Amino acid sequence: MSYLLREYKISDTKNVVAMLNAKREIQRAVVDGAGNIRLIRYVPLSSSKAVVEDEQGQMVGYAYVADKENSFVFETGGGVHPDHWNSGVGSMLVKWAKDVSFKLSEKAPKGIKCILQVNIFETEKETIKLFIDDGFAKVREWAHYEMALKNDFAISNQIKIREFDLDNDGDWDLVGPVQDAAFMNHWGSYSLPPVENIESEESDDDNDGPALDFSYSNAQGYCFIAFVGDEVAGGILCNAKLVEFQNTGRVGSVFTNPKFRRKGVGKNLMLSAFNAFYKNKMRRVILDTDSQSFSDSSRFYTSLGMNIYRREFLYEKEIRAGREIRRLNK
């Protein structure tokens, strides 16, 4: 059977979502309120996208490439209809993703290594084999945690917790430096030196841009800021609407000012989020974290009563040789 790989069009949305969910145990994609494809992982609308059709014009494959970090780290993902595995569709999409990444890497600072990444669930054996056979190597493991919510939790009064106003630029200004400091030593973080050939690009945030549905993003009422005295000690950002699960809340990011670590800040932020989910009748909370986190986050989540329910692997392949600027070791 022959296949056609072409650029994705907005009119493909419903067919792509149906294909990604075909014969799957969990829902992998939805059409959101603005008519865009929403996957389990966040995919920027600016990503490059492609589809594959069979001889009858049926949708059998889909992939995207997102520029994650200043044109030197790219992410791909997508899916192939189960009936068309081992027919070359996956290989077509991987080749397309590499070609797109190589072209995008031309905008990266000179002399810096460029890589393409993909996240794959542990159970997706055929997908793992596809990428390994193409030269991708496993570099990291992510653990997905869950916990049933049966009651609310007591919060320490020594740490002030208040709701994060997501529409208030002042709140973002407060937590921004703390968030940057909290993650600056994590695996994969980087610091670009001043480079002459980095050009500023005009923002895509204009009135002519695509319609957006923010209901799957950080949710008001589920995000909090912690203070010790008058100083910002940390924050937490959570989602209340998920693609694959109902009646479930997700902790997207929790961060603590390094000077206040191991003083109960992270715990109280997590418990505040748990209480918000419980109050709004959500009886399950999930999150994912780097299993080899330099900050030993796995131990922290386990101490709260959370348990691993699945694992996810990060694979990557070099797209352009150069100097590695990411933090990959402790």
What does this structure look like?
With 330 residues, the protein is of the alpha+beta class. The chain folds into two domains: 4-142 and 314-320, 3-Layer(aba) Sandwich (Aminopeptidase), CATH 3.40.630.30; 151-188 and 216-282, Gcn5-related N-acetyltransferase (GNAT) (Aminopeptidase, 3-Layer(aba) Sandwich), CATH 3.40.630.30. It contains six helices and 14 strands. The strands form two sheets. A twelve-stranded mixed beta sheet has the order 1-4-5-6-7-14-8-13-12-11-10-9. It has a two-stranded antiparallel sheet with strand order 2-3. β5 (59-69) and β6 form a beta hairpin. Mean pLDDT is 93; it is low at 195-205.
Topology of this structure?
Layout: E1 4-7, H1 13-21, E2 29-31, E3 37-39, E4 48-53, E5 59-69, E6 73-80, H2 89-104, E7 114-121, H3 125-133, E8 137-148, E9 160-163, H4 169-183, E10 224-228, E11 231-239, E12 249-256, H5 265-279, E13 284-290, H6 297-303, E14 307-320
CATH class of the largest domain: Alpha Beta
Overall 3D geometry? globular
Number of strands: 14
As for the CATH topology of the largest domain, it is: Aminopeptidase
In DSSP terms (H or I, runs of 4 or more residues), the helix count works out at 6
Radius of gyration: 21 Å
